[in-house]
Task: structure prediction
Amino acid sequence: MNQLLSTSDVPIAAACPRCNKPLIDPHGLGWCKACGYCHSLNESEKTPIGEANAQPTTLGATGSAVAQLPSWLWITLIGLAVILGLTIFLSRVIPLTPLERAIITSAGSALGVAVMLFGQFVGLMRIAPDDPSLTFKDVVFPFRLYGLVFKRLPLTKLTLYLCVWGLALAISVNVYVGGVTHWLTYLPKTQQKK
Result:
């Protein structure tokens, strides 16, 4: 018993809006073999244009790119700014004698180097299980260690923080506070010239 299909049972192929030919896969891709029209491509092109008009201009795009920077980078930069701000404040606002400047600069430099070495040691302990070729020598000469630290961010962010902040402290106290040459006045030959 063959039954005839009525016209309501046959699925109607969607027509191309450009040339009225039937679309291949009208509910998915919606591609027209005759003229090359693609329904899904046309829809995807419409969506970003509408969203782009709702977005602010280039400043908005730049702002969103800055907001997408990793948190470890922001923390590193904020810590760096705080250290620089404090040393500039210390050197410009608080009146210091030459001896006080020499003490603060020497202590700040020593603390900065100690923080850097500790950060490098932390990095070595974090990376050494994965790279057995690392030795304690890499704490003292950390060129290879820093390459591995940057490859493993954000896992090694503590090392990055300590190294950048320690270096910033050691440099900024020498640049902004200064006064290390005051120690030379205590040498015996310097006292004889007076």
